[in-house]
Structure formats: C-alpha cells, structure tokens
Amino acid sequence: MSQYAVSLAVFTMVSWGVWTVLANEATRSIEPEVAMVLSYGASVVVALGYVAVQNDPITLERSGVGLAVLAGVFAGIGAVAFYAGLSSGRVGVVTTISALYFIVAALLGVVFLGESFAATDALGVGFAILAVVLIAQ
Fold first, then answer.
1. 18-26: long-range pairs with CB below 8 Å, 24+
2. 86 within 8 A of 23, measured Cβ to Cβ
3. Are 66 and 10 a contacting pair, CB within 8 Å?
4. pTM of the model as a whole
5. In this predicted structure, what is the pLDDT of residue 133?
C-alpha cells in the first residue's frame, strides 16, 4: 500500500475522531436529528467544494450512480443510529462498536467480491471484538 494512502487513512481517522467528539457535544444542546442534518449538510458542502477544485471531468455511469445512492442510504441509516446512540450512550462505546463496520465490509468483500480472508484477518477481527467487549465494561 502506498504511503499516500496510509497518510489519507490517518487523516481520516483523526478527522472522524474530532467529528465524533464534536457530534457528541452537539447532541447535548440540540436534538441528535438536528445535529446529524447540520453535520452532514456541512459534509455535502465540503464534498462539493472538493469536486469543484478538481480538474477531472465528472462522468456518471448508470450503475455507479445507483450504487452511490444506495451507499448514501446506508450511510444515512448508520448516521441516524450513530447520532441516536451518542445522545443516549457513552461516546467511547458507541464509537468503538460503530467503528467495527470494517468487519461487515471485510465479510461482504469475501462473500461478494471474492477477496481473501486469512487467519491473520480472523485474528484481527477477534481482537477488535475483544476490544469492544473490554471498552464496553
């Protein structure tokens, strides 16, 4: 994997960590639904700004559009559950459990995309689940 990809992943981790803490604090003074809409509205503005400064032409393939919209539906469902969880639970537990989405993605990748799942992958998933159990105590 390239150093650039790793750098972006670390930047993502930090950004989402800050987002989670700010979202948690927002739900203390406004309804989680309102906080979610404002947060994701700001995200759309950032995404549109990013697209606007790119020099690449925008192409739309029918299947890609459908998959992107469906991905947005699942992201929205997850966001509603996440913000509701923040307003009623501990940020460390809600965030840790929700961050295990990579397990779902990995399993779906194996089943539907033919990706490999080695013993070390299973061990990593096991440790991640153990981490959640320990943090939730």
1. 20/86, 20/91, 20/95, 21/91, 23/82, 23/83, 23/86, 24/86, 24/91
2. yes
3. no
4. 0.78
5. 84
